[in-house]
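Support reply, case 0932

Customer input (verbatim):
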Amino acid sequence: MFKDYTMNQIVLPLDLEVKLQNNDIAFHVHHLVESIPQEAFEPFLRNEGCPAYHPRMMLKIILCAYTQSVFSGRKMEALLKDSIRMMWLAQGYEPSYRTINRFRVQPEVKDLIRQCFIQFRCQLIEEKLIDQEAIFIDGTKIEANANKFTFVWKKAIEKFHQRLIDKSNQLYNELLENEIIPQMERESDEQLSFGELTQMVQKVDEVVTEYDKQMEESSDVTERKALRSERKYPKQVRKQLIDFVLRKRKYQQDFKIFGPRNSYSKTDLDATFMRMKDDYMKNGQLKAGYNVQIATEGQYALAYSLFPNPTDTRTLIPFLDEIEQHYFELPKHIVADAGYGSEQNFSDILSNRNREALITYNMFLKEQKKKYKQNTFNPDNWEYDQETDTYMCPNQKRLEFQYHSVRTDATGFQRSFKIYECEDCSGCPFRSSCTKAKEGNNRKLMVNKKWEQQKEYVRAKLSEEKTSAIYRKRKTDVEPVFGFLKANLRFTRFSVRGKSKVENEMGLALMAVNLRKFTAIN
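Our regenerated output:
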């Protein structure tokens, strides 16, 4: 016996909400987007043309599709016809894939996504899922939607540009010697500018035109041959100068695209080539990508930002600025791994922001080992006399203070050092183990007092029970978010190009991770 089944019976359409489970993810998407203030949608208002789909509806269906690991506009369009939760969120509307793709890359959508993060955090606070005691910061690299072998390297462009400068200067001097062009007032003696090269092309073109005119006016065959022979060199020079002008323009555009970066992709100008960990053996491959920084608490992403530089050290300060400006006030503790440990970052957090930095540094774990503490040739283990401001080396020789030194890094940050020098290293039996200085030179020691104080601060904080417990949460808080993003959501590569569009897609993907986790917990 079977249950009654017939295809000929008329069935009245029901409200699709009845078909959804009580804790369906569509309800959480709906409540989140509805909590965004109406003022956030005003930039989407248009007074002309056909009425547009409501941005609340568009944001809901895109977020819901991302939670189902659907990132293609065409597949989202198909889901609007097949998925009950998508049909309920769209309330019968079926925007095309073109409409969906155009909407999610609009610059105005970025503010909507930020509002999603703000409202989601407020919801977490109301339900007491986070305590606002600390944020955990980390970064990962995600591959850009760029073609293979489209890399442009800054060092190569600098080399080619220098060759162009040398050749153009040489050609300019030759033209002056042959009296083909008059001497110009140059902006710089080192290189010819784009405008000056263009001016040289015009001058040489005038010379070639004059030769053409003389050849037309002359009826003497011998004279015409002589003029043609004289015209040959200016014509060759004109062709060469046009090539110089085109290359000069290209190199200037390349340098403008590079900015502070060392590379870019021809198909995604904002992407930088980075070393990606592609397999379990960590055999890195060089691919175009973005460095994604996130701030988490309770395994929820609360803020994010994208950076072109592959290392994390210089991303911390601008990321914290963006969090304060667009997301929320920074909590008391800022937690990150050793990749963020630098004097500049510690100074910014402790002095400028008045927060506690639970961030290790590169040598932190090594300093805890017995081998490091018992190494007599390690300057950190040398005896220091504060009264005389001297160090005592293993051979019982004093290293006395000599002078102060200031070093400025690429970002303009200055570090102050005190330079110490041994009184006499000649005949020392430990010389080969203690120093690499040439024979006749004494051992020198550079000491950064401020950096040493910051390291002592970190060691003290991580030895306290409360702060060390907060720091131990880092791996179990921020790392799983990247695991959910790449393994569960299967988001490993962007589907759009350009930083502005990529930021929108990254925000949608991270919010999808948050909603999936929030739904699973409830």
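We compared this against your earlier run and they match. Two observations from our side: The first helix runs from residue 25 to 34. The CA atoms of residues 160 and 371 lie 49 Å apart. Please reopen the case if you see a mismatch on your end.
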